[in-house]
Amino acid sequence: MDLDVFVSAHRAEWDRLDALLRRRNLTGTEADELVTLYQRTATHLSLIQSSAPDPQLTGRLSQLVARARSVVTGTRRASWRDVTRFLTQSFPAAVYRSRHWWVPTALASTALAALLGWWIGTHPEVQSSIAAPSELRELTRPGGQYETYYSSHPAASFAAQVWTNNAQAAAMCLVLGVFLGLPVLWILFQNMLNLGVGIGLMSSAGRLDTFLGLVLPHGLLELTAVFVAGGTGLRLGWTLIDPGPRTRRTALAEEGRAAVGMAIGLALVLFVSGAIEGFVTPSGLPTWTRITIGITAELAFLAYVYVLGGRAARAGDTGDVDAAERSATVPTAA
Predict the structure, then answer these.
(1) pLDDT at 255
(2) CA separation (Å) from 72 to 69, 78, 79?
C-alpha cells in the first residue's frame, strides 16, 4: 500500500467525519452519513494497521473511530441489571464452560497433594529437610502453629488478608495463562506443595484428623476457586496454541474478556471462603459443624455453576461481554 496515495484519497472523508462529530445536532441525512463514514474509517484503520502501520495516522484514526462509535452506539452505564446478569448468567456460564479444564485440574492437583503428603509423612528424612525436629514438634503439637494460625489475628483482619492473598493468586492464574499456561502450573504446584507439607507433617504426628478439621471448612471452596482459576488459565494458554475455527486474535480476545470477568466472580467466591476461614474455622464450633458448613458452601457453589451456569451456557452465554460492549471489528478475508 502506498500510504501517501491512500491518505490523499481518503483524507476528505476523515475530515468530514471529524466535522460531523463536532456538531451537536445532526439532521437525518447527516446522521446516516456519519454512520457510513464511521464504517469506512474503521475499515481504513484496519487496512493501515495490517498493511502500512503509521503511528501518527493510526492514532488519529483510532480516536476518530472511538469517538464515532460512542456517538453511533451511544454511551451506556452499568446498572444493577448488569450486575444481576453477571452473577446469574455470565459468571456461572463462564465457569461451566471451563469445567472440562478445571475439573481435571482439581483432580490432578488433589492427587498431587495427597501423594506429596504421603511421601512427606512416611519419610522422616524428608521431614528433617523441611525443619529441625523441635520446629516440627512446635508446628504439629496440640496448640501448635498449625492450630493457632487461624486464630492468631482478629477474625475480620485475618479474613481480609486471606481474601486478598487468594484473590491475587486466582487473578495471577487467569492473567498468566496467556504465557502458554506455564506460570499457572507453577502456582498450582506451590499451593499443592503447601497443602501436602501440612498433610504429611500432621499425619506423621498422628493428627491428620485435626488438620483436616481445620482445612476442610474453608479449604473446599477456596481450593475450588483456585482450581477454576488455574483451569481457566490453562485453557487461555491452550487458546494460543489451538484457537479452533476462530482467528488467534479473536479467540484470545474472547477468552481473555471472559477470564477477566471470572476474576471478578472468583473474588466474590473467595470472599465467602475467606469469611469462613476467618470466622468459622477458628471458632469453638464442633468439628463436624465446621466441616458441614464448608461442605454446604461447596455444594452451593457447584449447584450454582451447574444449574445456573449450565442453563445460561446452553442459552448461548459464553461469559464474554455483550456484543455492544466489544471493540469494533471489521470482517477480514479468510
Answers:
(1) 81
(2) 5, 18, 21
Q: What residue has cell string 498493511?
A: 51
Burial 303-318 (b: 16+ CB within 10 A, else e): ebbeebbeebbeeebe
All 3 cell numbers of residue 195?
497443602
Q: Provide the pLDDT confidence category of residue 273 given band limits of 50, 70 and 90.
A: very high
- What is the residue whose three cell numbers read 445532526? 26
Determine the pLDDT at residue 211.
Answer: 93
CA-only gyration radius of the chain, Å = 27
Q: Supply 61's cell numbers.
A: 484514526
Are the beta carbons of 267 and 170 closer than 8 angstroms? yes
CA atoms within 13 A on the CB side of 114: 6
Q: What was the pLDDT predicted at 191?
A: 92
| CA-based end-to-end distance of the chain | 20
* pLDDT number for residue 332: 41
Helix, strand, coil in percent for the chain, rounding step 5: 80, 0, 20
Mean pLDDT of the chain: 87
The pTM for the full model equals 0.73
DSSP 65-95: HHHHHHHHH------HHHHHHIIIIIHHHHH
